[in-house]
Amino acid sequence: MAQGTVQNRESFLNNIAEKLGRERRRSSVEPPTYTKQPQWDIMVDYTTEQLVDVLKEQCTAIHTDVKEATIDELPAVIDDVMKEYGAEKAAVWDDLRFAEFGLTSFMERPDINIWGSAPDEDDIKITEQADVGITFSDYTLAESGTVVLMNGGGKGQSVSLLPTYYIALIPLSTIVPRMSQVTRKIHEEVQAGRRTPSCINFISGPSNSADIELNLVVGVHGPVKASYILIDDL
Amino acid sequence: MPMKIGDHSFDQRVSKGLGETHMRETVRSAQGRLHTNKSKAEEDLGNWEDWRTLSEEIRSHTLENLDYYLEQLSDNVIKNGGHVFFAETAEEANQYVKEVAVKKEAKKIIKSKSMVTEEISMNEALERAGAEVIESDLGEYILQIDDHDPPSHIVAPALHKNKEQIRETFERLKGYDKTSKPEELTQFAREQLRQEFLEADIGITGCNFAVAESGSVSLVTNEGNARLATTIPKTQISVMGMERIVPTWEELDVMVSMLCRSAVGQKLTSYVTGLSGPREEGDLDGPEEFHLVIVDNGRSNILGTAFQSALHCIRCAACINVCPVYRHVGGHSYGSIYPGPIGAVLSPLLEGYDDHKDLPYASSLCAACTDACPVKIPLHEHLIEHRRIIAEEEKKTTRGETYAMKGFSVTSSSPRLFDMATRAAPIMSSPFTKEGTIDKGPGPLKGWTDVRSFPAPEKERFRDWFKSRKKEDS
Known about the structure:
The structure holds 2 protein chains of 2 kinds. Chain A has helices at residues 9-19, 48-61, 74-85, 97-100, 104-107, 123-129, 179-191, and strands at 6-7, 64-70, 90-92, 112-114, 132-136, 139-141, 146-150, 165-171, 175-176, 199-203, 208-209, 217-218, 225-232. By secondary structure, chain A is of the alpha/beta class. Chain A has one domain (48-232): 3-Layer(aba) Sandwich (Rossmann fold). In chain A, the strands form 3 sheets. In chain A, strands 2-13-8-5-3-4 form a 6-stranded parallel sheet, with helices on both faces. In chain A, strand 6 and strand 7 (146-150) form a beta hairpin. Chain A is globular, with a radius of gyration of 21 Å. The model of chain A has no long low-confidence stretch (mean pLDDT 96). Among the domains of chain B are: 47-300, 3-Layer(aba) Sandwich (Rossmann fold), CATH 3.40.50.10420; 400-473, no CATH class. Chain B has 22 helices and 13 strands. In chain B, the strands form 3 sheets. A 6-stranded parallel sheet of chain B has the order 1-10-7-4-2-3, with helices on both faces. At the A-B interface, strand 1, helix 1, helix 6, helix 7 and strand 10 of A face helix 2, helix 3, helix 4, strand 1 and helix 8 of B.
């Protein structure tokens, strides 16, 4: 990737330093050790089972259906959810986990578009017409009922966004207490010199709005319904 | 839309706000619900005060080292292949965005909600350049099609409108033919806007927090419109106030956790999105070109002053949702796109006292705002400081305020005068009193009694009652 450009930086930042009444700071600034760090106390000693309970409870608050499946049951459970939604066309990630979790024949169905396989790279258009988008969760946050998607390459950000419905496949091994554990991982990746994926989504249920008299309406610009399928991979 | 909205005086705006009973009803119930949700979220989290302390420490540290973190941010954005423009003024920011639009031959621009672009009137600038600008946040969309009605709340911009008014607007301007049910209104907006997203040449977003260490922009939303605006159009422009930044992803976690809980009582909103530059090689969606515009527009003048902590604001509106003054007068009375206590602090700082000198007085100084603030901005103390500056340094205070303040301090500092004044109150007010309340008050009471009753002064004063109690006891 070619490096981008920056304009007006020096005068802008010099002015800030001047208003702060000191010289420009260009190095050796580190966040301090904060006196309180309550985020690390939350669910610190929870087992996966306990985290799953928290996640399920939270999903009732965020209007998200939860199903559970073993790896063997997974194709049938996905079909159940699709039937519930009346969904036929699906858009999915090009992600090795689909094969690992026994979904190879599911992926070969004609009404499924695997991200990146559309003629003329028309994946956005096809995905926009799909009834349901299906992705795996890279990390799952129990506290907020959130799936974290590290998009890029075969993992198109459109898949969890453009179709009418969304299904997240959640291996139990991906569950952590809260956002803190994932942002720490991202932070460590940055420190190791790796580029952050250009789009990371923290998704907690279907899209919604309360802009009209503060009445909650589920289903606005993103998916109107969402289901999580918890897969026992432990 | 500039920061200042409308040309009416503060008194005129307040009178109008007080007269809009629909709006006041909606605001009252919204405030109640938002506040209840926040309280529950605080309770669920536990250690709320520890979280506030941590958040304040993060904001203080970041602002104290703002030049360092902005340099780091911009270095990382360009490393990711994005472009950064530092804009000292609104004009510079708008000029840059206009140039990008012209270069891209953009006909249609889709926007997600952004207060800073409202502040610098970016839409108007782009429209003058010949582009169609479409707001995609549901609340902003409603306001935009209704002849650019200004926002009245920073989280729920169309809070002052009820669903019947919205139905009528959709019907009149967009051919809507269904009911005023929020579900149906929302479904209609989804259908209308989906096509716009697919056709848009440029997506413009704000920025809740930039992350310095990775050159990222985070967007905290529920509707999914900010995701659409950053997934489909080939060009993305994000505009941020220069203070909206955290050092690393670890601080982002804390600030987002606080923002979601304080704004709407959610643990996380439906979508928290971290965007780091344009799409990478092999990606088939996301923007091919990414621009970050970092806006000063008066903010640097607040650095190094007694008001610096006002820049810690994370725009959650918790202070607005507890303010008894906002509750009664509504957002438009403030005459600024930033209403409520934080608006009363910020607007005069960003635009000067001339247009906003009344705002620091739109407060009862009850300090509910300060208690509600997740990053511990001492809002009511800032308001007092504004009043002090206005009264002492700028000499812009109204005569009434001077006399009232002087009158009160003289009267209350002299036991004999205070005694006389309170003794006189029931006699002086008797012509206006009916069944124990005053409904048509004179002079300073008028503003109050136009919309509610004022209890008439008790005939027996506390002082007398207390004295006689003491006598009885002895």
